[in-house]
Amino acid sequence: MGARVIDGRALAEELKLRVISEVEELAAGGVRPGLATVFVGEDYAARAYERRVRKLAGELGCRYTCERLPEEAEEADVLAVVGKLNADPRVSGILVLRPLPERVSEPAVYRMLDPLKDIEAVHPVNAGLLALGRPRYVPSTPAACFYLLDRYLKLSGRDPEEYYRSSTVVVVGRSNNVGKPAVSLGFARGATVISCDVNTYRAGRLREQTVRADVLIVAAGVAGLIDESYVREGVIAVDVGINPVADPEGGGRTILVGDLDFQSVARKAEALTPVPGGVGPITDVWLLKNTAAAARWSSSRFPGRRWLPVAAPAISGGYEEQ
Ligand SMILES: NC(=O)C1=CN([C@@H]2O[C@H](COP(=O)(O)OP(=O)(O)OC[C@H]3O[C@@H](n4cnc5c(N)ncnc54)[C@H](OP(=O)(O)O)[C@@H]3O)[C@@H](O)[C@H]2O)C=CC1
Ligand SMILES: Nc1nc(=O)c2c([nH]1)NC[C@@H]1CN(c3ccc(C(=O)N[C@@H](CCC(=O)O)C(=O)O)cc3)C=[N+]21
């Protein structure tokens, strides 16, 4: 049987409808969510992402601003921009695009974020809440991975809760933005979680870990890193990588490919996600969903605003119950 290709665009459309109704509800209460991005330099994947969230914010009727800084920007320039956005009441949520230039310290920039506007949960307080399983915001990329997995598991007739508890989730990549929070979300579901990074690879021991995966989440940023020799028969593989490469069809164009060697992994997988059209489109929508949540929580017009998560949180953001 051929592998199922999980359609991230269709799932993103479904999620978008829910975010639209949240934004409409806010609008009826006189609140308009505002997203601000901070984009330093010229990274290709960051540019692709910035364009997409700009467009989506427009479609959803959210405010949007992108603070552009040159590659030569100093840390103080970035901190000043974050300070300005913190103070701007029109801005509900802030996304600092990665990568930042080396001279700009990521932790310093993240510490500067107003925690209530930190929709990617990179401020130490929000990252800590997430690691403790009590997230204020679930960051969009790992949230997108599990949203897609949860939906796929349901659509294929399984109970996700039961499935994770008896499954091994292997995460390749350990960044603070993607890999580590994905590990936290795996823990929160009661899965057995294995985390690998470049050290595992250099030690020649990546394959022995990835073949154990029932669910494999790959976020290394290395085009085609994982082929069929890295996976077990029947794996569910989620490709986070967004890697610009020269179009093999020629024409001097650049295309985006993932970290999976798609055709190869498809020979053994039960299901897998493509690039483009997999995790990416859901990430975009999730970012705006968090922006809407930030707008709600910071508005005095909505009763029951929550500065901190009070109930057992929906670690996947609350949409898995459908
Ligand atoms: N689809 C989407 O929605 C999104 C896609 N992305 C994409 O996902 C990818 C990862 O992003 P991000 O986490 O921010 O990237 P980072 O570069 O910050 O982190 C990459 C991680 O992968 C590890 N790694 C690198 N090479 C290997 C290897 N050969 N084997 C195993 N592990 C390896 C690194 O290890 P070490 O730390 O030890 O170097 C690091 O932990 C990128 O392609 C990015 O563009 C990112 C966000 C959203
Ligand atoms: N702080 C931070 N958080 C990020 O999440 C982050 C970042 N920095 N820096 C850059 C990377 C890259 N990234 C993408 C997300 C979705 C698509 C996406 O939706 N792509 C479409 C295709 C795009 C196209 O084909 O042009 C898809 O996969 O179908 C792309 C790129 C988020 N990133």
UniProtKB/TrEMBL annotation:
Transcription regulation as a keyword of this entry, yes or no, is no
Enzyme Commission code: 1.5.1.5, 3.5.4.9
| InterPro entries (alphabetical) | Aminoacid_DH-like_N_sf, NAD(P)-bd_dom_sf, THF_DH/CycHdrlase, THF_DH/CycHdrlase_cat_dom, THF_DH/CycHdrlase_NAD-bd_dom
One Gene Ontology cellular component term attached to this UniProt record is:
cytosol
Keyword annotations from UniProtKB, A to Z:
Amino-acid biosynthesis, Histidine biosynthesis, Hydrolase, Methionine biosynthesis, Multifunctional enzyme, NADP, One-carbon metabolism, Oxidoreductase, Purine biosynthesis
What does the record give as its pathway?
Answer: One-carbon metabolism; tetrahydrofolate interconversion
Residues the entry annotates as binding NADP(+): 173-175, 242
What Pfam families does its record include?
THF_DHG_CYH, THF_DHG_CYH_C
Functional note: Catalyzes the oxidation of 5,10-methylenetetrahydrofolate to 5,10-methenyltetrahydrofolate and then the hydrolysis of 5,10-methenyltetrahydrofolate to 10-formyltetrahydrofolate.
Family note: Belongs to the tetrahydrofolate dehydrogenase/cyclohydrolase family.
Describe, as the record does, how this protein assembles with itself and its partners: Homodimer.
Q: What is this protein called?
A: Bifunctional protein FolD
- The organism named in the record is Rubrobacter xylanophilus
